[in-house]
Amino acid sequence: MMQKPPVPELTETALFLDIDGTLVEHAAHPDAVIVPPALPGILGDLNRKLDGAVAFVTGRNLAMVERLFGQTGLAAAGTFGIERMLGDELESGHEAAAAVTPVFTELEKRFSQTKGVYFEYKGPVLAVHTRAAPEALPAVIAACRNTLTRLPAGYRLLEGHAGAEFLPEGATKSAAIAWFMSRPPFRGRIPVFLGDDTSDEIGFEWTNRNSGISVRIGPEIQTQAHHTLRTVTDVHDWLTRLARSG
What we know:
12 strands; eight-stranded mixed beta sheet; four-stranded antiparallel beta sheet
């Protein structure tokens, strides 16, 4: 049985946070998530006490992160690290290549009459959400797999618990965390990464290899994470204890 994560020393910690299913509860539609009123304050306290070494690492784009949390001043990696923001430093990846658009459009048309299936375009990334239609997930996964041979070299399919995403190979949460860890104020600290889904497993693996603390949110399943918190509420409680420890 995995243990709850320890509360590390603030001066030694670099904190990386997934959003959906980690900081906020999942919703049937990505636009329907609710940020608890106290959460931005908790994150702001942590960011000050960690001297800025707190970052969102999420599949959402940076515009959506700001829409949800406002201008927190936190660093952020959006769209699986294609977009990266740290202080005044902003990096943005390539737009969707023309070669992928017909494939994505074909998939969207195929499921246009399937209630609860939602397509989200994020530059070069396509997310297909089935949280509101779990019975459609097997058909969505099968259809996505069938399109892979028609996508440009370097694209991969990430199959999740409530949908699937097409990603360029360089779009990984591990690469985003490594990018932050090469820069102040993250450099030289212990990476702590919290996430809940398939896309977070590569981040857990990187964190473990770099002597960090990996934390999966949700019921215990096979995972690369070494620690667990059961619920989003447990995450908020743990973050509050971390903020109060310094």
